[in-house]
Amino acid sequence: MGDTVLSLRLHPSAVDLSRHPETSQEMLATRIAAGEAAMREAGFDIVPCQVSADPDESEKMVRECLAARPVQVAMIGAGVRMAEEHTLLFERVVNLLSELVPGIVFCFNTSPEATINALRRRARPSN
Hints:
Layout: E1 4-10, H1 25-41, E2 45-51, H2 55-68, E3 73-76, H3 78-81, H4 87-100, E4 105-108, H5 115-122
Parallel strand pairs: 1-2, 1-3, 3-4
Helix pairs in contact: 2-4
C-alpha cells in the first residue's frame, strides 16, 4: 500500500500576486487543481489542504485536514516555504506536522507542475 500525502498549499487568495503580475488567483487555482489531479493520476492518495497566510488559522486548518485521514508524507508547496513573509507559517506547520505525525516525511516542490517529481523522491504511490 502507498503513502497518503498531505498536499499543503497556500490558498490562491493568500498568495501575493504582485510578484507575479502575469498570474491571477483563477490561474493559480487552475494550476493547483491540475497538480492535484496529476497526483491522483500518478497513483498518489492525497489529502488536499489549502491554508491562509495566518499561522493560527493555518494551524487549525492543518489539524482539520489531518483529522480527515492519517498521512505519512507532507508535500509543502513553494508558496508556504519560499516567501519571506511566510517564514513563521512554514515553521509552524512543519513543527505541528512533526508533533502530530511522528516520523512524517516531507517533500517540497517549486511549482504545482513540479509536484509529481517531488513526490516521487519521497512517497510511494498507491498503485
